[in-house]
Amino acid sequence: MKVGIFTFPNSASYGATLQMYALCYAVGALGHEVEAINYYSSFMKKENHCRAGQSSAFAHAMKRTARRILHASLYARSSAFEKKNIPLYPRNFFSGRNMLPTVGLRYDAVICGSDQVWNPNITGGDLSYFLDFCSDSTRRISYAPSFGLDTLPEDFVAGAKRELTKFSSLSVREAQGQAIIADMIGREVPIVLDPTLLLEASQWQALEDTGFSVGEEFVLYYTVKSSPRLFAKCRSFAQQQGLKMIVVGGQWANRNQSKDSVVRYAVDISPATWLWLIHHARYVVTNSFHGTAFSVIFEKDFYLELSSLTNSRLNNIVSALALRDRVVPLEENITPVPANFSIMSERLAALRKASLNYLKDALSEDAIHG
Fold first, then answer.
1. I need a surface site. Which of 5, 11, 46, 96 has the fewest CB within 10 A?
2. Alpha-carbon gap, residue 265 to 178, rounded angstroms
3. Are strands 283-286 and 301-304 parallel, antiparallel or unpaired?
4. HEC string of 270-314?
């Protein structure tokens, strides 16, 4: 069967890139021919989802241009990783919705997800992410998408509700989305694992590339939300353990060695190098879902900050995998308590099996023609 994956290509986000790779890998391992549909909506191309707080469209455009210039190597490395490791169609992305119906005819089934593909603040309310371009002969499936919001705009709900009723198989990645779908169309749907958790550590290790010289043991610091408090905790912890603190991110000025003898910056690294750093870290400190997910995959001692801004999937994963002890209370410092991964391994194996069974059943010939 020929299967299209509809998600977020052309992203400089490690999580977005690696979840796309993982879903393609999992579908291919089930014996299907798979491609990631290389669609990049005009709303996202202009990074309008990052515009919040900008005083004007001009200010946003200037900031976007500056970011693209300052982090050109990050965008180039992310794109190179996708082109090397992910079957993209077409090879060069397109942004016109009018092309999608023709592209959709290539596939027996199209899967939307994972990531926040159903978040109208990110997609601009583009119903392409609900597969509205698919013909009646193409099977519509969702795998672990997220709305990313507690409440949805009224003008968005009507279209989303209409398209959701056309899905043959529906799943989400968190309880929040489960409740939204139940409210919208009265349908109970399963929660499945983020695609990155469908693969074993050895399968991820095959993609790694050093790309960043460390030379000694280190604590890896990776966040998606700025947290000066967590940064200070991590630095103190690294110093106490006699380790370097490697910070993923930073600006061009951080490329050279920091004056801080403890801290080094890994600026604009590729997804393959990001994987290597998590795999080889002595400890990981994060507030990121995918920072947590890959710490779980590689069984790293990790420490997680949760806050009132944390989305529900982080709470879901630490509860589902019995990892609440990895959460650092906001007012406490990090203490080196080794993680017990025995219960986690058993639970992850069961959730992985259930998630793969959902995907297998959704793509089965019986499900399509029955």
1. 96
2. 39
3. parallel
4. CHHHHHHHHHHCCEEEECCHHHHHHHHHCCCEEEECCCCCCCHHH
Contact 95, 14 (CB under 8 A): no
Tokens 């801290």, residue located: 263
Which residues make Cβ contacts (< 8 Å) with residue 295, sequence separation at least 6? Answer: 278, 284, 286, 302
Q: For 45-55, how does the pLDDT look when each residue is reduced to its tens digit (9 = 90+)?
A: 766 555 454 45
Which residues are CB-contacts of 347 (< 8 A; sequence separation ≥ 6)? 320, 321, 322
Cβ neighbours, 10 Å, residue 123: 21
Edge-to-edge strands of the sheet including 301-304? 263-266, 244-248, 218-222, 283-286, 301-304
Q: What is the DSSP code (8-state) at residue 97? A: G
Say if residues 348 and 296 touch (Cβ distance below 8 Å). yes
Measured at the alpha carbon of residue 10, what is the angle toward residues 9 and 13, in degrees to the nearest 5? 90
Calculate the CA 68 to chain-centre distance.
21
What are the phi and psi torsion angles at 155 (to 5°)?
Answer: -70, -20
37 contacts 6 by C-beta, under 8 angstroms: yes
Tokens 């799943």 found at: 171
State the Cα torsion 162-164-167-170 to the nearest 10°. -170
**pLDDT tens-digit readout, 219-277:** 999 999 899 999 999 999 999 999 999 999 987 666 665 688 999 999 999 999 999 99
33 and 106 Cβ atoms separated by less than 8 Å = no
Sole residue written with tokens 């393959």: 272
Task: Dump the DSSP string for 162-218.
Answer: HHHTT-SB--BSSHHHHHHHHHHH-----B---GGGGS-HHHHHTT----S---S-E
H or E element in which residue 138 lies: none
